[in-house]
Design brief:
7 helices; globular; Spore Coat Polysaccharide Biosynthesis Protein SpsA, Chain A; alpha/beta; about 40% helix
């Protein structure tokens, strides 16, 4: 029987960590990476018998890599603190890895804003429909981008049918806060890469991104929630661009 490690990477997640870890009891090993956590996350993780790693990793890919290397299982299920593994998905994971060749599985996501299951309108910047959360060790490598890091996948690609429950945002305020935080991180990455671009293409992207989220991905079916996701997708690239340019102006005026 294949050995399964469940990996959770957190930063001050005491409010929801226990709910997440409760759903991971089917794994053979639980590893929790605590990135600069100053709340009760460590105590909660240890209460679930998890192996804990403490440190400071400014780059997401670095802390993910640390957690993956610490896992001893043949397969790794990577779960965030705002995600829950329902029993049907847990059973499907165990069954899948017992006979699978090394590679990875895409897991579908049931995304929520608060307690509302929002099915349509999710885009590249604010939620995904599927993620390669389950993989054989050595088959998933994280990049070092500051926001939405790229990943490299190896081996056979397969899909599971049962969804992961994902509480993406707590409420509208959380959507706005994350838009600000993510666009700032993206601005830093754009400046570091020298990939800033110009104003007009980013203005055009406002309309194309909104159309993709609200129309092509049928966000209109979600009412105001879909409109909110469309606005997030539209504003993310132009806000990133404005923040980079304003930072450059400040540097030049010093």
């Amino acid at each position: 029987m294949a050995r399964l490690s469940a990996l959770v990477v957190v930063h001050n997640e005491e409010a929801q960590l226990a709910d997440c870890l409760t759903t991971l009891g089917f794994a053979d090993e639980l590893v929790v990476v605590l990135d600069r956590s100053s709340d009760g996350s460590a105590r909660i993780a240890e209460g679930f018998g998890a192996r804990t790693l403490h440190g400071a990793w400014p780059i997401e890919g670095d802390r993910r890599k640390t957690g993956i290397e610490a896992c001893s299982g043949d397969w790794i299920l990577e779960v965030d603190a705002d995600e829950r593994v329902p029993p049907a998905l847990a059973a499907e994971v165990r069954q899948a890895i017992d006979t699978a060749e090394p590679g990875y599985f895409l897991i579908p996501f049931a995304n929520h804003i608060g307690h509302r299951h929002v099915r349509f309108g999710w885009g590249a910047y604010n939620g995904v429909s599927m993620k390669p959360c389950l993989f054989a060790k050595g088959c998933k490598l994280w990049g070092r981008q500051r926001v939405h890091p790229k990943i490299e996948l190896k081996g056979a690609r397969r899909e599971l049918s049962q969804p992961m429950t994902h509480y993406v945002y707590k409420d509208v305020a959380d959507v706005i806060d994350r838009l600000n935080r993510y666009s700032s991180l993206n601005a830093e990455q754009m400046r570091a890469d020298g990939s800033i671009g110009t104003l007009w293409p980013n203005l055009r992207r406002m309309f194309s991104r909104f159309w993709k989220s609200y129309v092509s991905r049928r966000g209109y079916r979600e009412g105001l929630y879909g409109l909110l996701l469309g606005l997030f997708s539209a504003l993310y690239p132009i806000l990133s661009y404005i923040k980079v340019r304003l930072e450059e102006e400040r540097d030049q005026s010093r």
